[in-house]
Amino acid sequence: MITVRPGARAGVTDWAIAVGVAAALLVTGLSGQHSASDLAPLGYALLTAGGLALAARRRAPVPVLAVTGLCAVGHQAVGFDVPAVAYLFAVYAAVRAGNRTLTVVASVAVLTCLPLAALASGLPAGEAFAQARGALEIAWLVAAGAAGEALRQAERRADEAERTREETARRRADEERLHIARELHDSLTHQISIIKVQAEVAVHVARKRGEQVPEALLAIQEAGREATRELRATLEALRDDDTTPPRGLDHVTELVERARSTGLDATLTIEGQRPDVPVAVGRTVYRIVQESLTNIARHAAADTASVRIDCRPDALAIRIDDDGKAAPGAAPGAGVGLLGMRERVTALGGRLRAGPRGEGGFTVQAELPVEQTS
Questions:
Q1: C-alpha angle 67/31/139, rounded to 5°?
Q2: What b/e readout covers 196-221, taking b as 16+ CB neighbours within 10 angstroms?
Q3: Which of 203, 257, 284, 311 is 20 to 30 A distant from 176 in Cα terms?
Q4: 50-55-60-62 Cα dihedral, nearest 10 degrees
């Protein structure tokens, strides 16, 4: 099945109108009386050119307005008493495109030049003015401009209605996403609560029996608590609830301590005088450290990890290193966590680099500007 694009269809229509107008003007010029027969070929050329120029009236309405106006004046000057139909089409297109002031100026110039051109062709003054008036009646000129303006206003109202529909659809989509977030929160909170309760019961029973509690069980218990807190914080953020401050730079210590509870030798170093960072920057720092330590615990098989935050006057530099199994020269992973970190950092105008270290292990480095996002 062959489909025709709207742009191509409009182009065909424009060419059809242009050829039709050019043919009508040329037939009128051939059938009418005109003086200065030695300039007749120039007159025919100007009539044809004025009509064919209308093919570009959508793409270049102002140049087409100028070309058709000059052609109208030109064929009047060589003695062709032919109505300036092409110029009326150009006025309509120019006004529709929003060039009202320029169209008025050009039309005044054409109206002034037409009788002068008729005089130049050798006609008496009275006949020259009558011919110019007949070539471009002011009423038709006003009608063409009014038609273009009316259509332009209608198109603008249609565009505004379309934008309103898009905004309504976007708002409904946001409401639906919030509804899904709430449903997901309720479902996951229920399941994670069961896991947390079971882990706490197992820990309690093991301690009551005097048995050593496995580190994995303690990690499950703490992860369940943290997941519940994170779900609640995420839902509150979606609800634009400002009663609970978001997690940020002040909560990085908790992440490191939680990593230590799983058996990882994690350290935290903060250097420099910490500036008052925007909420978005603090949240991003927290997420970078959280995701990095989570990846170390899950995939790196590391014994040690270090978190270093360098507070500069205009930026925060974060670096997380581990001594895991990542080999030098290996390609960095392309997981969802790393992609999410990169998107957060880029959105704030910062830079992020993640990859294996030369001495073994993995490193994540990020630099977040403070002044630009405050």
A1: 50
A2: beebeebbeeeeeeeeeeeeeebbbb
A3: 284
A4: 30
Short-list 236, 343, 362, 254, CA closest to 299: 362
- Mean pLDDT for the chain? 76
Which of 213, 221, 231, 230 minimizes the C-alpha distance to 196? 221
Q: At what angle do helices 138-208 and 100-120 cross, to 10 degrees?
A: 160
Least confident stretch, 42-46, 78-82, 222-226, 239-243: 239-243
Q: Which two tokens stand for residue 248?
A: 């940020």
Burial 153-162 (b: 16+ CB within 10 A, else e): eeeeeeeeee
The residue among 240, 329, 303, 313 whose CA lies nearest residue 271 is 313
Q: Do 365 and 318 touch, CB atoms closer than 8 A?
A: yes
- Relative orientation angle of helices 6-31 and 85-96, to the nearest 10 degrees: 150
Burial status of residue 117 (CB atoms within 10 A of its CB: 0-12, 13-18, 19 or more) = buried
Per-residue pLDDT at 121: 63
Instruction: Give the dihedral sign, CA 268/273/276/277.
Output: negative
Percent of the chain with pLDDT over 70: 75
Higher pLDDT, 206 or 148: 206
pLDDT at 261 over 50: yes
